[in-house]
Write the structure tokens for this entry.
Amino acid sequence: MTAPLKPPAPGGALSFRGLTLGYARHPAVHHLDGTILPGSLTAVIGPNGAGKSTLLKGIMGEIAPLEGEVARAGLARQDIAYLPQAAEIDRAFPIGVFDLVAMGLWRRVGPWRALKPHRAAVAAALAAVGLTGFERRPIGTLSGGQLRRALFARVLLQDARVILLDEPFAAIDARTTDELLGLVHGWHAEGRTVVAVLHDLDQVARHFPSTLLLARGAVAWGATHEVLTADNLRRARRLCEAWDEDAPVCRAAAKHDHQSHDHPPHDPANHDQQPHDHGPRDHAHHDHTHGHAA
């Protein structure tokens, strides 16, 4: 019988210090500075190609910074859980729902240990997402909403302090979305740090108190009602549209003093960051252009 999970430690902080992430030396996230506070519930939004998914992969350590760093003070690898986009799951892989969900235990019990002592924990996670009775179903037979529920069950078993969700509610029905949002609010109430890439701005406004608006850099970051303005959204679209596909990594206009860019709790009044506007008219003070990646 699986022992009850210990109450989680408070969610960890994630600090970005001059962070540039990208592919083949072409930046997708550009000179990002700031801190996601412990226990916060943060939406990451922006136009397509703004670097949102890249940022989550950088936090996970799947993508090494081209410049700067992600500081994960006091967090071990197993303290961070990641729910990928559904499109990244190979649904043709011959695995059942039980085994997919049980993968959430790997970091706690090891990948080759017997799961029999932990079957009750897997069953409880499946019940929490409404998938009791689906244990033997191949994942390729699941609907989009059912697959998303299974991935949330896997995150539940990880019992992580920081939870990263990449488009967790895309292309699923309203009932499933509402039930999975309940899990997200539960994690937040437990003091875990939750960061979600989202596209539905109404959903962001209703459920996420903090928002980071990305357009390669931070257009605005702080209280959601102050970030979701028409001016900010227009600026984000303009910055993404003006990005140069083939440009290399540039240097920041001034050197980053990492001691001075570790932001405490965000004050929306003074944290409306001004990333470089990448139209030609904005480059009088730069000797560079900026790269673009999907």
User: Anything to note?
Assistant: The longest strand covers residues 26-36.
